[in-house]
Design a protein that fits this description.
The structure is a single chain. By secondary structure, this protein is of the alpha+beta class. The chain has two domains: 15-36 and 199-324, Immunoglobulin-like (Sandwich); 44-180, no CATH class. 27% of the residues lie in helices and 26% in strands. The chain has six helices and 13 strands. Strands 1, 4, 5, 6, 7, 8, 9, 10, 11, 12 and 13 form an eleven-stranded mixed beta sheet that branches. Strands 2-3 form a two-stranded antiparallel ribbon. The protein is elongated, with a radius of gyration of 23 Å.
Length: 328
């Protein structure tokens, strides 16, 4: 669930197979791993996107001077439209974003068709792919789907673009080209990332402390990216009993889980905003399809869940609408 791989997952339509088992009950629920294509949101894959562009034919390796000119031409063409998406007006964004995306797609195809100087070849390829990914993200900026990608921490669609993984890759690629040759200038169209209050919590930190305690245990094995895990009562107002932060590649055990039957919701992402208790980029939201029973003393239930798809796993998950993810 990384930044340029994520994406965003929308709606309860994709199921994946995980491991979840307890000392009292073993879930036996089949599932399958979803496959998605191309990029959505901050770099996650979804479905095909249409590219409309006039592609020049490649005439072999070009000179450093001509390559510099092509970079400048692409930068200028993108910048003209890119400035139009810096708006809080949804109607303006709905029109400007697709137009900007099409401009980017056209420049991507032009850059793909050239053979840059050998010293710039590797960086050029990475930069072009990052630019294409940003085009996909901008294509969706004017839609509800994109606006809801990180609702807990996203200040605006435009700001989410500036702090995205695609934007960071373009800045990095532009910097690498300039080191190869100061004449290779690109990325003037892209403003610096806005300052954020991103602060990554320690592994096992409570985003929401338990409202009551019991004797249950929840073991979490996280082989993926940074994740928050919430226990949400099956009955009641759907306010989480607790929410815990588990860092990428880490494990954690929540002790003292209160008796009750719960759904387990989880969200992954990057750039945690502590003030708004949410990820600002690369967000994805899911839940386990089955419920988890924690009984009262003298019975002590221990459940263990694995937060990455596992071959032969016995618990399936579904995607959750970001705006329906339990919080509080």
């Amino acid at each position: 669930m990384g930044e340029g791989g994520s994406s965003g997952r929308r709606g309860a339509t994709v199921r994946q197979q995980y491991v979840a088992y307890g000392t009292a009950i073993v879930l036996v629920v089949s599932g399958c791993v979803g496959v998605r294509f191309l990029t959505a949101g901050d770099g996650k894959a979804t479905g095909p996107t249409q590219i409309v562009a006039s592609v020049p034919s490649s005439a072999g390796e070009i000179t450093a001077g001509r390559y510099s000119d092509l970079l400048a031409e692409a930068d200028s063409a993108i910048g003209t439209d890119f400035r139009r998406i810096d708006t809080d007006d949804p109607q303006t964004l709905a029109t400007a974003a697709p137009q900007t995306a099409q401009t980017i797609y056209a420049e991507v195809e032009k850059l793909r068709a050239v053979t840059p100087p050998p010293s710039a070849a590797a960086v050029h390829a990475q930069l072009v792919e990052a630019l294409a990914g940003m085009g996909d993200m901008i294509q969706r900026l004017g839609t509800d789907q994109e606006e809801r990608s990180c609702p807990a921490a996203q200040a605006s669609p435009y700001e989410s673009l500036l702090v995205s993984g695609w934007a960071n890759r373009i800045r990095a690629g532009a910097g690498a080209l300039a080191k190869i040759d100061p004449a290779f200038v690109f990325g003037k169209f892209l403003p610096p990332a806005p300052a954020t209050l991103a602060s990554r919590p320690k592994n096992g930190s409570f985003v929401k402390a338990p409202t009551r305690r019991g004797t249950g245990h929840l073991k979490i094995k996280n082989g993926g990216g940074d994740t928050i895990v919430s226990l949400v009562p099956v009955t009641g107002d759907k306010t989480p009993l607790l929410t815990v932060y588990v860092r990428a590649g880490s494990d954690d055990t929540v002790d003292g889980v209160a008796a009750g039957t719960y759904f387990i919701y989880y969200a992954t992402g990057d750039d945690w905003n502590p003030a708004r208790r949410g990820f600002m980029t690369d967000c994805a939201f899911s839940k386990f399809d089955d419920t988890f029973l924690f009984r009262a003393r003298p019975l002590i239930d221990t459940w263990e869940i694995t937060m990455t798809p596992v071959t032969g796993g016995n618990a399936s998950t579904s995607d959750v609408d970001p705006n329906a993810f339990p919080s509080g």
